[in-house]
Amino acid sequence: MNRRDFLKGAGAAIVPAALPGALWTPAAGSEKPQSAEDVPADGSPVTAVVFDERYPDCREFAEALAARGAKPFATNQDAAQLWYGGLRAHLAQNPGRVAGLTTYADFSVSLACGRELGLARLYEGAHDGRRSRAELAHRASTRSGAAEIAVAFAGISWAARLADALSRLHAPAVEGGNSEFRLLTAITQRSAGHPGYLNSWLLS
Predict the structure, then answer these.
(1) 54 φ, ψ to 5°?
(2) Residues 180, 186: contact at Cβ < 8 Å?
(3) What pTM was estimated for this model as a whole?
(4) 113 Cβ partners below 8 Å, 6+ apart?
């Protein structure tokens, strides 16, 4: 199955919250920053990272996670083949979280394919440079680690810093059976080679 066939079949099932510009309502309350020594509380590391090999930000994101032990998977502009091939085989032997920095189409495919394997969205980010040649607007929603993710957008090399933050995200604390997403926004300098719009994500 290729990405075009997958998107045709799954198009009606894509929920509005997954569309560019549609993000969750921020939850009330505050979060404590995590220390650099923290590891995911649920013991589930990032074991795979999906990236679009055409773009420097995506390659930097993947390299940062690969340095922490995740296996990188280039989309080759068709994430569906990954999820029904090498990536699925890898996850069968190495269960854990899957992170990505990809185009919106490959994010949509990954979200649906991850759901088939019981993986749910823990974090989603949009990195939009369509309105400026100099600046990149970041919008992110996360179920945990909001403070640390915000720090990732406070300096240069945002893609590597974000990858580092995502590698240490704790499972969200659920109180009363509810765990809400928090919304974050930031502006950074636009990276060289940024295509205009990318999505970062973490499935757990």
Answers:
(1) -75, -20
(2) no
(3) 0.79
(4) 6, 79, 80, 83, 84
CB within 8 Å of 106: residues ≥ 6 apart:
3, 50, 52, 75, 77, 78, 79, 100
How big is the chain, counted in residues?
204
Query: Letter for the amino acid at 189?
Result: Q
> pLDDT tens digits, residue range 23-80?
322 333 333 333 333 345 455 899 999 999 999 999 999 999 999 999 999 999 899 9
Domain boundaries, the chain: 45-170+179-203
Helices (H), the chain: 3-10, 56-66, 79-83, 86-93, 104-116, 146-152, 158-167
User: In this structure, what are the phi and psi dihedrals at residue 116, rounded to the nearest 5 degrees?
Assistant: -60, -30
